[in-house]
Amino acid sequence: MSEDRATVTIEVDGREIQAKAGDMLINVTDAAGIPIPRFCYHKKLSVAANCRMCLVEVENVPKPLPACATPVNDGMKVYTRSPKAIAAQKGTMEFLLINHPLDCPICDQGGECELQDVAMGYGGDVSRFVEAKRVVPNPDLGPLVSTDMTRCIHCTRCVRFGAEIAGIRELGATGRGEHMRIGTYVEHALNSELSGNIIDVCPVGALTSKPFRFRARAWELTQFDGIAPHDAVGANIHLHVQNGKVMRVVPKENEAINETWISDRDRFSYEGLYSSDRLMQPMLKDNGAWREVEWEEALEAAVNGLRAAMGSDSAQFGTLIAPTSTVEELYLAQKLTRGLGSGNIDHRLRQTDFRSLGDHPPFPWLNGAIADLEDVDAALVIGSHTRKEQPLLAHRLRKAALKGAYVALLNPFEVPLSHDAEQIAVSPASMVAELAAIAKAAGVKATGDLKKRIDGAKPDDRHKAIAQRLRDAGHGRILLGNLAAAHPDYVLLQALASELAQTVGAGLGYLPVAANSVGAAIAGAEAGRLPGWKRTDAAALDAGAMLEKGLRTYLIAGIDPELDCANPAGAVATLAGAECVVALTAYRTPTLEQVADVMLPMALFAETSGTYVNGEGTWQGARGVVAPVGKARPAWKILRVLGNLLGLEGFDYESADAVRSELEAECEGFEPAAGEIELGDAALMLQNDGLVRAGDVPIYAADTLVRRAGALQHTPDATTGFVSLNPTEAARAGLADAREVRVTQGENSVTLPLEIDPAVPDGCVRIPAGVPGSAGLGVPFGAVGLEKG
Amino acid sequence: MSSALQERDKDGLFSPEVREEIDAWIAKYPPEWKQSAVMAALRIVQDANGGWLTTELMNDVAAYLDMPPIAVYEVATFYSMYELKPVGRHKICVCTNVSCMINGSDKIVEHLEKRLGIRLGETTEDGKFTLKEVECLGACGGAPMFQIGKQYYENLTPEIVDSILDGLE
Ligand code: SF4
Ligand code: FES
Ligand code: FES
Asked: What is the ipTM of this complex?
């Protein structure tokens, strides 16, 4: 649609309104605040004009017209409440209700139902329909969405959502006339990571939240604002609270961040707040036995453990903190660590390659606004299962692709997408070579190790095409995802990506791993980086080195070490061997019981105030809206009191806001700069011999909270671990008819179910990380041996 | 380019004759509107399968035309000429819409039900006949009427019905 359309003047109910010619009447009246009832119209979906609820009278038109499908033109006179309009609306309402069960008293939508509201406002109070109402069986759409299809009014919003937004058409309208019904026809659980949005778009109680079903009435809930704590979008949410408990989460509209959508992970993860393994009380290990203690005793034990780390060998102390923590927690954790004289703090727990990128590497953020992603004309994504890592960023990229953008992905396996894309799927050990081939095709000039890689590359037509499309793009973007960040040759991938970006004139950005990866970098919770991402040369061990070397004392915050660290088996062994491990944790787990000495129960999102900085660098604060469970306390307060008890300077904060203000002051003048990568010696770490593991983190395994979200753990995307190979490799490994496989990685081995998947390339075996099944293994990328289990 | 939709090996779908026939229909539409051939494809596949469609066949049509399976189910469930359950050798589609009703389609239905021993929507045990009620077939001038296979039979009376059925194998 061209932007320079003529301005026209129309009159609605006697009021003059300016509008752009060709705009739909309903957009114009909505903007002017004139109410028109509607069901099928949704501003983010195509116009279906099938419900007829929006009928209005237009002068000189004999019949009422649907406002959602009537373009405005100059001089048009519209009446929304004339006798003719009212008769049309009333008639439509009566018609829509003939088959509706009118079961509002037992319907979860009651009190927040568009049908109820519109019926009140525009309907009659008696129905003339005396025939039998139809009955429709309810399809099982899986653990998230509950169905009551007799209530469906066939507006097809859910169908259009699937086709147009989620990009997987799973729902449809089958049958005809009175026999038409909405469903999947062949019953299956919805597969989209955005499926929960159909609950919101459904104007009636046909599609409702299954975990929330029958738990509370809409009018019993209090609504608070919040920020979703999982991915780099930081979707704006509403938390609905009853009796001090989060009952459900729904999106809060913010066009620039999440539009009107949220991912299923953001919507249903709140269930993890009330998981049965929440730690309710501080606990202390005495001679190997755990006992519940009061805060005072626990803090004293923690302080004693940490104080031993102060002084001459403070380098023997380190802090590992989850990248989903709030900025305030991250900032205080680094302040405490550095206050104790150690530079060992890190949030990059899944990263394995920490080799130097020189003094001024690019800041690891999206490098642009989230909404900008839909305007790229060419994008190359390196190492990302986009839909499952960053559901709403993937949605923006999809929008770009639908507008004609060229999207290419380089991954260790082919990922399911909902748009056309060029996918290069190769063994993880070949990813550097593939990227080097694209760089060579683009004419990248480089030196040192990078030159070696580029000189050795053999670009084929695909590499040339990608290089060309990036070069031709006015707005090109190269993005590095989680699978790149966990790769043993991450620095090589970054250096090649950066050179390529410069050569073709594209922007280089990162798809930050977690909700606050960017916030953690800004807060200084990173080895070698002070608040404001200022470089420091003070000795510092990164997350990998801390766990590899084995320190005497650790502070860990918000993590399950066997699931959140790059090398789970190694991390657990190292922590178990430490003298003292102080754990700030929301959950009590067997691993923490094994490795920790003190467990301090911390509050989770929604229970604590805090700030998240999303991928585009927007600081978004959220309040604690419910009290923490049991004796749990907000982690920033725990860190504050630890700082005080340790006698460290400057830990007297009144509020989380005060912590944030201090950090903001330290960030004065910080601008995420483009940076320049200077690669020192960087040999290729991952070699192509035998089968190489690719370990992606499944969407519902990403962090401690979502792992414990009951309903999500029953979706098709949930897994406790598997091994997948393509049929050729399976045959080659003698596993063609195997159901279980024994995987050996270094000295570790585990047995996992085998799945045959043609999306996995030759030379590669996909074994997800972050799940219990692979917790006994090492790093996500590396050589593995397979045998029949 | 690999697309979002499941790529299946299209040459492995259907028999060569069926493929050829579907391809002829696909060729009638611009390449990006391949899905327009869905109705013809369903008909061809149904004919080749003894007059009815299985879910697997509908999935195959979806894969062949690069459509989401649900979009094929929508078409197949919307139009009354697609059968989703096995049908008899002769499918009798009796019109009971307004013109036919006024001209006595009730009697025709009653007679058929009695003679065949089945109700509307059912198939005789020997698999010879399926009786189906349909909407206006556009032959109101010859009401009441029914269709068997590709043939219309108009101005029906019970006697004419008998003679038609007697003549069928
Ligand atoms: S289920 Fe809800 S959204 Fe879908 S068609 Fe029915 S009323 Fe509309
Ligand atoms: S909202 Fe206009 S027809 Fe449904
Ligand atoms: S009503 Fe029977 S053919 Fe038209």
From this structure: 0.84
